[in-house]
Design brief:
With about 300 residues, the chain is of the alpha+beta class. The chain folds into two domains: about 20-125, DNA primase, PRIM domain; about 140-240 and about 250-275 and about 285-295, Alpha-Beta Plaits (2-Layer Sandwich), CATH 3.30.70.3300. The protein contains six helices and 16 strands. The strands form five sheets. Strands 13-14-10-12-11-16 form a six-stranded mixed sheet. It is globular, with a radius of gyration of 19 Å. It starts with 11 loop residues before the first strand and ends in an 18-residue tail after the last helix. InterPro entries: LigD_pol_dom, NHEJ_LigD. This is DNA primase-like protein. It holds the Pfam family LigD_Prim-Pol.
């Protein structure tokens, strides 16, 4: 944001597709380890907007904001800030026991840049769209490595889960979490409820835990997780969210939750590093396209409940 060789101003008014608004504190360092600034974050989201927006559109987005960078405490923000621009719409989010709340609708590049200016380092979304909160469009399995397990262990478990999906004629799509683990998505885009997705996700996890009891578990008890991968099936509920594909993470480095191919998962199981950051992902998308694009349109049906 500024000419090469010329220091960018700390604040400026930007024009994003005809939306004019102010961005500020552009020189604020949000990732001290790498020196990554708010300007860098905004530049990433402006570049990745065409790819990430379809995965955000129509869904309530929970922002994880770190105004002072990753070295300081952040906070979750489900309700869209009251000071949002009048052109930024909202979408229903399940909210809490008092009912749905108005979350930010990130459906255009300007909205994405505006939330990046809030130092929203993570974007989390629901499995269901805001206009049909009880109908998940996909199922997710969160693979969380315990102590003494790295990402290669998660990749191995993901390959086992793919075998289970293949056995019932379902396709799955993998992505890194941008943190320690990874997620496996099963697109549905057909009528399902959370009882169905949750029970099927649990059954898959239990099947593997029975087959590989020294490597896999589905219980949240931390004392049992040493050397194992926890298959978190519980994300498949109305109020839970998962990190959105192509979202940055509030880690030491500006890593990104990145879709990966099954060939890459196989390589990851053999120890190939699978960590991507804001500098890698735009070029990667230019070369490979959106490896998660089919999750938005592929229609699949889970096996009928017995």
């Amino acid at each position: 944001m500024g000419d090469s060789g010329t220091a960018a101003p700390s604040s400026q008014t930007v024009d994003v597709d005809g939306r004019h608004f102010k961005v500020s504190n552009l020189d604020k360092v949000l990732y001290p380890l790498t020196g990554t600034t708010k300007a860098d974050l905004i530049a990433y989201y402006a570049a990745i907007a065409p790819t990430i927006l379809p995965h955000l559109a129509g869904r309530g987005v929970t922002l994880v904001r770190h105004p002072n960078g990753v070295g300081e405490p952040g906070f979750f923000e489900k309700r869209c800030p009251s000071h949002r621009p009048d052109w930024l719409d909202t979408v229903d989010d399940p909210g809490d026991k008092r009912g749905a709340i108005a979350a930010c609708a990130l459906d255009e590049p300007a909205a994405l840049v505006w939330t990046a200016n809030l130092a929203a380092l993570e974007l989390h979304t629901h499995m269901a769209l805001g206009d049909d909160l009880d109908t998940p469009t996909m199922l997710v399995l969160d693979l969380d490595p315990g102590p003494d397990v790295d990402l290669s262990g998660c990749c191995e478990v993901a390959l086992w889960l793919r075998e289970v999906l293949d056995s019932v004629d379902l396709m799955g799509f993998a992505k890194t979490s941008g943190s320690k683990g990874m997620q496996l998505y099963v697109p549905l885009n057909t009528p399902h409820d959370y009882d169905h997705t949750s029970s099927f996700a649990l059954a898959m996890g239990q099947l593997l835990a029975k087959r590989e009891p020294k490597r896999v578990l589905t219980e949240m008890t931390k004392a049992k997780r040493n050397g194992k991968v926890f298959i978190d099936w519980s994300q498949n509920t109305r109020h839970k969210t998962t990190i959105t594909p192509y979202s940055t993470r509030a880690r030491d480095r500006p890593t990104v939750s990145t879709p990966i191919s099954w060939d890459e998962v196989t390589a990851g199981a053999d120890g190939e590093p699978l960590s991507f950051d804001i500098h890698d992902v735009p070029d990667r998308v230019e070369e490979l396209g959106d490896l998660f694009a089919d999750t938005l349109t592929l229609k699949q049906h889970l096996p009928q409940r017995g």
